[in-house]
Amino acid sequence: MRSRPFYDVVAALARLGVGIVFMAHGWQKIEAGITATGRTFDGLGVPLPTAAAVYSAFVELLGGAALIVGLGLPVTGALLFLDMAGAFVFVHADQGLFMVDEGAARNGYELVLALGMASLVFAAGGGGRLTLDQWVIGKRLRGAAADDDEDDAASFVESLRQAELKPPKKPRRTPKPRASDPPAVTEPSATEPSATEPPATQNKPAEDPGGDDVLVAGRRKASRHRRSSTTQPIKPPAGDDKTSP
User: Fold this and answer.
1) Mean of pLDDT over the chain
2) What is the DSSP letter of 240?
């Protein structure tokens, strides 16, 4: 299984090789002249030959350099792929695969096909991490992370400062009752007798069936007057012992 650093090194070498080829073809067109390159494209049947000559010359030269350093790879790879796609369709498609076959120049499409597919791979993110894009993006991400850390620290310090400056909450005082306020209604407790209960449920001395006994503290006692009247006879007073006729 390949490791990530090994892949990054291989991708950088691939970008270097493809970029050198593109730069060489672009410099060749510029050295020959844009006008002469346009006439050549016109003879090959390329539409808008002058514009096509300008596009291919500068895209191949500058795009090859951008591939080497790894700058704007999605855009650079897409532009180079379009350049090779146009060369394939308008110049090399009907010439066969090989550029040289049986000792004769055939001007086949093998080179533009390889360069176009490599450019497409780089546009899709296959350029590795050893690129200028990764360095710029990583620097921005590190800066953004540092700014976020500073903002978090500043907000934490500010929250502590606000907590120190904030006065403590005073206890809430209950308002004093006024003379004009209605009296508070309290519920009767379980131990107190309710006003709705009949008087019979409250503590009341029980009446004696005979009329003389009184129930005191749960114990029934007879009155002394009744006990004395039932146990001793009534004697007449002295001096009044007379017989009736």
Assistant:
1) 76
2) -
3-state SS assignment for residue 239:
coil
What is the number of other CB atoms lying within 10 angstroms of the CB of residue 107?
16
The strand pairing partners of 219, in sequence order, are 216
25, containing H or E segment? helix 4-32
Per-residue confidence (pLDDT) for residue 119, from 0 to 100:
95
Burial of residue 7 (CB within 10 Å: 0-12, 13-18, 19+) is: middle
Contact 122, 17 (CB under 8 A): no
Q: What are phi and psi of 124, to 5 degrees?
A: -85, 5
> For residue 245, what pLDDT band results from cuts at 50, 70 and 90?
very low
| Distance (Å, whole) CA 34 – CA 26 | 11
CA dist 16 and 65 (Å) reads 9
Nearest alpha carbon to residue 56 among 75, 84, 78, 35: 84
CA–CA–CA angle 121, 126, 127 (5° rounding): 110
Tens of pLDDT, residue by residue over 97-145, are: 888 877 777 888 999 999 999 999 999 989 888 999 888 887 777 776 6
For residue 90, what is the DSSP state?
Answer: I
3-state secondary structure of 43: helix
CA distances from 5 to 8, 11, 83, 130 (A): 5, 10, 31, 9
Predicted TM-score (pTM) of the model is 0.57
SS3 state at 74: helix
